[in-house]
Amino acid sequence: MKRKLVLTGAFIGMLAIILGAFGAHLLKKYLSVDQLNTFEVGVRYQMYHALFLLFLATQKELAEKTLKSIYNLVVAGVVLFSGSIYLVATKDYTLFYSKIIVFATPVGGFLLIIAWALLFFAILKRKS
């Protein structure tokens, strides 16, 4: 599980850097300032959660089941939250956009919140 956490965290982080550069350099010509700011929120939260996965890999006392649950919540949350933000920000230029995509953002955000809460309560229950 630790390897999976590190590999996924590294991949999501790398992708965040690529998308951030793409937004800052290429999309700058096409998107409004508001759209670029929206895009940047997706990149920022994606990077936060890449680092979160890397942090999880260092936690030796968390149960495997807890790590898997947090991992699944974070991956699904990043895809829904950041992914939907990227689509909303670039809706004028992407082939796939539907009004239903805006519902993915709060669902993804809720999954990320649950992941953090799960870590909080797992550590709270742990004996120091």
From TrEMBL:
Keywords tagged on the record: Membrane, Transmembrane, Transmembrane helix
Source organism: Flavobacterium phragmitis
Topology in membrane: Multi-pass membrane protein
Name of the protein in question: Uncharacterized membrane protein YgdD, TMEM256/DUF423 family
Subcellular location, record wording: Membrane
Transmembrane segments: 47-63, 70-88, 100-124
Keyword Transmembrane: yes
One GO cellular component, as annotated: plasma membrane
Similarity section: Belongs to the UPF0382 family.
